[in-house]
């Protein structure tokens, strides 16, 4: 019975995501500000937007990596590509970044928030200093960028695309500050979506729940701690772009993450069992 139920739910979600009316031509000439664009899914997002003819402002912490991505985007056919190196741990950066994007592009159609600050696994990550830094990078900077870009997105009837994590819905061990920041994103943007609806503001918000990032730094940070495999960057990036372009309220990649989120409150004990299968508890506790 359980197998049949899960199979039926899987078929339902598959049909839902397949029929999304995605039109790639609709992104030609779109003005996109993309954060966290130097590696992983952010880099793949930049390349896909470039292939689709979007005008881009890219930002990340490391200028040398950004320059490489910008060069590749130009080769892929992006009509306009600009970049600005930015450290989201600094509260002054978001205003400078949005001002730069508006100056270069004349407005925004998409704000894609993808940057990520990670801390070491284990008990060290629960220090007040580490938590404060993580909340600034992974939450407060998202709020700042959204508030600053919202007037332009309102004018263009644009979209906010927020790349989050399963840990913003299903908490796990040894990730307390990181999970707190991701839960905060879900609460903030869920509430903002309702506020915009009540005020008849035509700005879409797409929350993207992704698995482990497919990038070397992420894999290294959790080596020996988790048994989970990283999601393929190009496929995850395409799911994010499709969701934003179709103004979907949510994107889950892999798709079964949606089931995990729905089952979270129903099956607490199997959830703990599932986490133990994905986590090397001894290694995480020793970190």
From TrEMBL:
GO cellular component, one term: extracellular region
Gene3D superfamilies: NAD(P)-binding Rossmann-like Domain (3.40.50.720)
Record's keyword annotation contains Signal: yes
Domain of life, per lineage: Eukaryota
Signal sequence segment: 1-19
Record keyword tRNA processing present: no
Catalyses which reaction(s): cortisone + NADPH + H(+) = cortisol + NADP(+)
GO MF annotation terms: oxidoreductase activity
Transmembrane segments: none
Pfam families: adh_short (PF00106)
Keywords: NADP, Oxidoreductase, Secreted, Signal
Cellular localisation: Secreted
Classification via InterPro entries: 11-beta-HSD (IPR051253), NAD(P)-bd_dom_sf (IPR036291), Sc_DH/Rdtase_CS (IPR020904), SDR_fam (IPR002347)
Chief localization: secreted
PANTHER family for the chain: HYDROXYSTEROID (11-BETA) DEHYDROGENASE 1-LIKE B-RELATED (PTHR44279), HYDROXYSTEROID 11-BETA-DEHYDROGENASE 1-LIKE PROTEIN (PTHR44279:SF3)
Functional summary from the UniProt entry: Unidirectional NADP(+)-dependent cortisol dehydrogenase (in vitro).
Stated family: Belongs to the short-chain dehydrogenases/reductases (SDR) family.
Protein name from the UniProt record: Hydroxysteroid 11-beta-dehydrogenase 1-like protein
Organism encoding this protein: Callorhinus ursinus (Northern fur seal)
Gene: HSD11B1L
């Amino acid at each position: 019975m359980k197998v049949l139920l899960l199979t039926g739910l899987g078929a339902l979600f598959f049909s839902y995501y397949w029929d999304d009316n995605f039109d790639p031509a609709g992104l030609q000439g779109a003005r996109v500000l993309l954060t966290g664009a130097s590696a992983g899914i952010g880099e793949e997002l930049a390349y896909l937007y470039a292939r689709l003819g979007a005008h881009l402002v890219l930002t990340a912490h490391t200028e040398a990596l950004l320059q490489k991505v910008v060069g590749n985007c130009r080769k892929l056919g992006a009509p306009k590509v600009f970049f600005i190196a930015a450290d989201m741990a600094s509260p002054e950066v978001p205003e400078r970044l949005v001002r730069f994007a508006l100056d270069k592009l004349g407005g925004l159609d998409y704000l894609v928030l993808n940057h990520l600050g990670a801390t070491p696994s284990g008990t060290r990550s629960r220090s007040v200093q580490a938590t404060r830094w993580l909340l600034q990078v992974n939450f407060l900077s998202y709020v700042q960028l959204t508030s600053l870009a919202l007037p332009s997105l309102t004018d263009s009837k644009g979209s906010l695309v927020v790349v989050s994590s399963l840990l913003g819905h299903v908490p796990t061990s040894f990730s307390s500050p990181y999970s707190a920041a991701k839960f905060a994103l879900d609460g903030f943007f869920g509430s903002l979506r309702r506020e915009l609806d009540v005020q008849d503001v035509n700005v879409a918000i797409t929350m993207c729940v992704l698995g482990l990032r497919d990038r070397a730094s992420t894999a290294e940070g959790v080596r020996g701690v988790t048994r989970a495999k990283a999601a393929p960057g190009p496929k995850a990036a395409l799911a994010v772009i499709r969701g934003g372009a179709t103004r979907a309220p949510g994107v889950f990649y892999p798709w079964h993450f949606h089931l995990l989120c729905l089952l979270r409150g129903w099956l607490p004990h199997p959830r703990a069992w599932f986490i133990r299968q994905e986590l090397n508890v001894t290694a995480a506790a020793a970190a």
